[in-house]
Structures are given as structure tokens and as C-alpha cells.
Write a structure and sequence with these properties.
Helix content: 25-40%
CATH superfamily of the largest domain: Ribonuclease H-like superfamily/Ribonuclease H
Number of domains: 4
Number of helices: 15
Radius of gyration: 43 Å
Order of helices and strands: HHHHEEEHHEHEHHHEEEHHEHHEEEEEH
Length: about 400
């Protein structure tokens, strides 16, 4: 359908045969149909060629115009053309998707709506000139003379008769160029449904309902978009990147596309797409918290310390805190104590029992220990943290004192 539409204007596109070769190869007899990235690239190049100079011509206000309009179940399309001596050449294209109550119109009214939309869109060109309208719906030839009209048709005819001079001519659909503009791009959907492994699972769960090779989410009119990256990327760009989309945020963009399409985890896909949009990142104002004022870094001081302290000789002085032992009095600078002397074969002491406990002012808990094999006069106070190897005497003392844990000492 698209290739036939493009082929009609091939004489206005430079090197058309070479440009369209990947698509025409798919139409060869017994050729396998396999849609690849090069085919999608060819479609985009043809679209660009058909909508850029020298294909589109400037309108001549002294000549009459020709409109070819068509409608499908979900969209309408039209082409504005003019013969300036080289045959009919396009001036502008129009393609619009139907929404709401328009989807429920009978086919006669949809075809008429396509004509009305075309006249409204190109009113600045068509007022005051004779216009010939080609349609593939034969009954529209009698639109102005049919005896019974609905209120909607009366409004449309009143608008057309008041502002324009026009004639409606029947033209079979296969000869109508606007027919391609009103048809949805089923190629990507068909290929996506054939390659998406999630489609059989969705059918098994009765989540889909089919209509004209298009899958809809059951219970709604939303098209189920297959897991085909080029198709989903196209929809994401259509609802976010184009001029009329406005580069809205993820929530507003998702609201727009969710009215017509659905696929699993589409909210996550939109969030990733919007946050990675280059235009949004460069042009929109940042909502992040502003950076604070610059703060000076602490300046390190180098001190010479005795080697016996075994620490690094460079550190941040402002990070040091004064140390005060509550059981000692600071009397000024004192000489460093000698290093401890390790005595070989030092005797081991075994705990016989725990007699009492108390807490010092600095919070340290000490236990009164009776040593096995020593006189009671040798009893001594030992920090509770050193009693890890005397669990049984300590447990017996805790039970006797009614203490449930060492943290309550």
C-alpha cells in the first residue's frame, strides 16, 4: 500500500527506483518476507523524499485545486494537489486518526468527514477557487442532493456550501492516493506479532482479541503493541519528540499514548525514554537541588612526633580531640613511658569466683575477682571486658545477683 502510494509520485523523487529497491525486492514472486532494519530505513527515506522539495510544490492561487480524500476504520487521509503544467503534483498531505464518537460513524459519514477535515485544514487555499474532490465512496456523489440528511450531515453540507465551490467525483479506492494515508502501518505490527514470544502467552491467558490482523487488549479498544523495538521506538518518538507532542514529562506522555495503545511495562519504557531524551536534558530547567557554597578544605599541619609513638607524622590537627583521664591530673608535659617488657613463661591466673562489681566515673565496669590458689587478700578489681575467658564464674555471679546480661552491670 505504501509503496504503491510512493510509486505514483516516483517522477518527482530523484533516483526513486534505487531508493525503493529494498521494498520492491520483497514483492518478488517466491521471495521470503523478512522485515529488516534496511527496509524500515527505506520507508523513512521515502517519507522524507515525498514531503520535501522538489516533490511538494507551492500553490498557484490562480489555478483550481484537486483533493483526494479517503477514510478507514480508524483514520482519515487526504492529498491537496494542483496541475501547474506537469500533471497533478502534491501541495500538502493530511492524515488524522479518529477519536471517540468518530470511530462509531458509519462508513458513509467517515468518508464525508475526511472531506470536511480536508476543507477545514486547507481553507486558506480553497476559498474562492473551484475544487474537485475525488472519493472512493460512490454514494458521496449524491451528498448534496440526497433527500434524507442527519443533523451532522446538515452541518457539514452547510459549512461546505457556505465557503467553497466544489464537485465530488467518484474514484475507485485502488486509484486513490489518499488511501495509503488513511491506512495504519500494519507492516510493523504484523512482523512484531510474528516474532514476539509474549503474544502466544497473552493469547493463552485470553488477554487479546483480534480484528483485521491487529491485536487489541481484551475489554478495551487499545491496540496491543508487540515487543518489537522499532515499533515501540516509533510510538515513543511520535508521542514525545514531534513538535505537537511538546516533549512533556513521562506521566503526561504516557497518559496520551495509553488512550490508544498498551504493552506490558510501558510506564517503565516511557520513564527511561523521557529521562534519556537529549532535547529535554539540554533545554528544560533542572529540578535538582542547587549546589551549596564552596567550603575551604582543612589545611594539614606537619608535626614531628617521637618515633616510639608509631603513628604517621602528618595528620589533620583540627580532627584531634583533647584526652582527659578522669583518674589523673594533667600536670603538663610528661616524659613518654618506656615500652612494656614481655616476660617469658609468665604464670597464668585462674578465676575462682566473682565477688562484686562497680562502675567507674568514666563508665567502665569492674569486677572483684577471687583468684584460684591465692589468699583472699590477693583479690583484685578487673575490667569486665577482660572476663571473656571466665564465663562460668561470671554467669554464676549474674544469676546470684539477678542480672540477666552483662549490659545491666
Amino acid at each position: 500500500m505504501f509503496l504503491g502510494f510512493a510509486n505514483y509520485y516516483n517522477r518527482f523523487v530523484p533516483q526513486y527506483a534505487k531508493l525503493a529497491a529494498p521494498l520492491t525486492n520483497l514483492l518478488k514472486k517466491n521471495a521470503p518476507y523478512k522485515w529488516e532494519p534496511k527496509h524500515q530505513e527505506t520507508v523513512e527515506q521515502l517519507k522524507q523524499a515525498l514531503t520535501s522539495a522538489p516533490v511538494l510544490i507551492l500553490p498557484d492561487p490562480e489555478r483550481n485545486y484537486v483533493i483526494e480524500a479517503d477514510a478507514s476504520d480508524q483514520a482519515v487521509g487526504a492529498v491537496l494537489m494542483q496541475d501547474q503544467g506537469n500533471g497533478l503534483q502534491p501541495i500538502a498531505y493530511l492524515s488524522k486518526k479518529l477519536h471517540g464518537a468518530e470511530l462509531n460513524y458509519p462508513i458513509h459519514d467517515k468518508e464525508a468527514l475526511a472531506i470536511v477535515i480536508a476543507f477545514k485544514a486547507w481553507r486558506c487555499y480553497l476559498e474562492g477557487r473551484r475544487t474537485t474532490v475525488y472519493t472512493d465512496h460512490c454514494s458521496l456523489k449524491y451528498l448534496k442532493t440526497q433527500p434524507n440528511l442527519s443533523r451532522r450531515q446538515v452541518r457539514w453540507i452547510d459549512f461546505l456550501e457556505t465557503h467553497f465551490h466544489y464537485d465530488i467525483v467518484y474514484k475507485p479506492g485502488h486509484k486513490n492516493k489518499a488511501d495509503a494515508l488513511s491506512r495504519p502501518a500494519h507492516g510493523l505490527f504484523t512482523h512484531g506479532y510474528a516474532t514476539d514470544p509474549e503474544i502466544p502467552l497473552a493469547e493463552k491467558r485470553h488477554l487479546l482479541q483480534w480484528d483485521s490482523d491487529i491485536a487489541y487488549r481484551k475489554g478495551s479498544m487499545k491496540i496491543w503493541v508487540p515487543n518489537y523495538p522499532p515499533l515501540r521506538q516509533l510510538l515513543l518518538e511520535e508521542y514525545h519528540d514531534v513538535l505537537y507532542a511538546g516533549h512533556f514529562g513521562s506521566n503526561k506522555t504516557l497518559t496520551g499514548i495509553a488512550k490508544h495503545y498498551y504493552w506490558p511495562h510501558m510506564a517503565e519504557d516511557f520513564q527511561k525514554f523521557v529521562t534519556s531524551c537529549d532535547t529535554c536534558q539540554r533545554m528544560k530547567s533542572s529540578k535538582q537541588k542547587k549546589a551549596g557554597l564552596l567550603q575551604p578544605l582543612p589545611v594539614p599541619f606537619r608535626l614531628r612526633l617521637p618515633a616510639t609513638w608509631k603513628i604517621h607524622n602528618a595528620f589533620h590537627v583540627q580532627l584531634l580531640k583533647p584526652y582527659r583521664d578522669p583518674n589523673t591530673i594533667f600536670v603538663g608535659r610528661q616524659p613518654l613511658p618506656p615500652p612494656p617488657v614481655l616476660v617469658q613463661n609468665e604464670p597464668e591466673y585462674e578465676v575462682e569466683s566473682v565477688l562484686a562489681h562497680h562502675r567507674r566515673l568514666n563508665g567502665t565496669v569492674e569486677l572483684l575477682i577471687r583468684w584460684k590458689g591465692y589468699d583472699p587478700s590477693e583479690d583484685s578489681w578487673v575490667p569486665a571486658s577482660d572476663m571473656g575467658n571466665a564465663r562460668r564464674p561470671l554467669h554464676a555471679y549474674l544469676v546470684k545477683q539477678g542480672v540477666t546480661s552483662t549490659t545491666q552491670l
